[in-house]
Amino acid sequence: MRVMGIETSCDETAVALVEAPAGAAPVGRILANVVYSQLTEHRRFGGVVPEIAARAHLERLDGLVADALAEAKLGFADLDGIAATGGPGLIGGVMVGVMTAKAIAFAHDKPFLAVNHLEGHALSVRLTEDVSFPYLLLLVSGGHCQLLTVDGPGRFTRLGTTIDDAVGECFDKTAKLLGLGFPGGPAVERAALGGDAVRFALPRPMWRKPGCDFSFSGLKTAVRQAAEKLTANDRQAIADLCASFQRTVGDVLVDRCTNALARAPAPTLVVAGGVAANVYLRSRLDALAISNGIRLVAPPVKLCTDNGAMIAWAGLERLRLGQTDALDFRPRPRWPLDSGERIAA
Ligand code: KG4
Ligand code: ZN
User: Fold this and answer.
1) How far is the CA of 233 from the centre of ligand 2 (A)?
2) pLDDT at 344 over 50
């Protein structure tokens, strides 16, 4: 079974082809995975500009589809399904991807699959690792921060979510405040390498409180106040603040996952989403998993941030279950993972 996946919900234009045996095979294979990051388009604004993103997707997508097919030495006739992110995300970009996928599916008489972007992150680990359901998922990205039990494709139970900001957004804001550039996550992680993680005592919102919800706005404010007191260009102080911030985020994530594991025990803890690329945070979660006698599994770093392979893979998992979508699927700017809904209300 071979599926094309198209991802255009934010600032990466991405196309991939993945393959797996038709049965319930444990892992898949990536045949092509091309990503165009719109970094140069958005950098001078310090964040993603939706209108610019949509136009850039439109300009690049056809070329990337051709590149992916060429890389895999395949034609449309060799594919069994065409998947695209159907939401949630920036609606202009989602429309570009969905319309392109529908057009390919219609022209070549292939099934179309509208994939929830979050489900793409949620299932991505199964593309490369033999992980069976159920598992506990910590989904940490630029727009989301959630804990869920994953029982299968389309079968999610949300245990907790952020009541204000997403953790990736907090990394991005910290980087911006400290002049480390965009995107913020990797820049903060790099700066933190040479820093003292206990120099700044920052608040740990929700820490040791019951439940599995998150909050990051207080931490964001505390980082801003600490940053305002720094002398300009004090590289060591910036490194120390990044390291202290990262440790604080680690404390909070570990604390929330501890509560989630107590409430919904699972043999595997999976971390996914852009922030899962962070090596320090992975090591903290790994230690938590070991102390609970379970295993931590994370996608390879390059499959943590947005990519087409995760969309193709989620599409393939759905195709195996016969869950395809009609060509009148409407892109969804909002699409909660635990809603169980497939078609726009
Ligand atoms: O999953 P993703 O690519 O896009 C969304 O669906 O939101 O996540 C992007 C987020 C950004 O906020 C980015 O700063 C963060 O993931 N990120 C990281 C790292 N790499 C990306 N955060 C912390 N450490 C990293 N190494
Ligand atoms: Zn994402």
Assistant:
1) 32
2) no
Break the chain into its structural domains and give their ranges. 2-124+303-320, 135-298
Distance of alpha carbon 100 from alpha carbon 82, whole angstroms? 10
Assigned fold of 135-298? Nucleotidyltransferase; domain 5 (3.30.420)
Cβ of 317 less than 6 Å from ligand 1: no
Structure tokens given for 336: 């909660």
Pocket test for ligand 1, best of 36, 37, 305, 310 (most atoms within 8 A of CB): 305
pLDDT of 181 reads: 84
The residue whose C-alpha atom lies closest to atom 13 belonging to ligand 1 is 185
pLDDT of residue 332: 96
| CA–CA gap between residue 315 and residue 319 (Å, rounded) | 6
CA of 183 to the centre of ligand 2 (A): 13
What's the CA-to-centroid distance between 303 and ligand 2, angstroms?
10
Report, as an integer, the average pLDDT of 114-122: 98
pLDDT, tens digit (0-9, with 9 covering 90-100), for 196-234:
999 999 999 999 999 999 999 999 999 999 999 998 889
The second-level CATH assignment, the architecture, of 2-124+303-320 is 2-Layer Sandwich (3.30)
> Model-level pTM greater than 0.90?
yes
Beta strands of the chain (E only): which ranges? 2-7, 12-19, 29-37, 81-87, 112-116, 135-140, 145-152, 155-161, 268-272, 295-297
In tens, the pLDDT along 239-268 reads 999 999 999 999 999 999 999 999 999 999
Matching fold, domains 2-124+303-320 and 135-298: yes
DSSP 173-221: HHHHHTT--SSHHHHHHHHHTTS-TTSS----TTTT-SSS-B--HHHHH
The one-letter code for the residue type at 111 is P
The response to whether residue 305 sits with its C-beta less than 6 Å from ligand 1 reads: yes
**Residue bearing tokens 């599409």:** 315
Q: Are 202 and 226 in contact (CB under 8 A)?
A: yes
Per-residue pLDDT tens digits for 130-187: 999 999 999 999 999 999 999 999 999 999 999 999 999 999 999 999 999 878 999 9
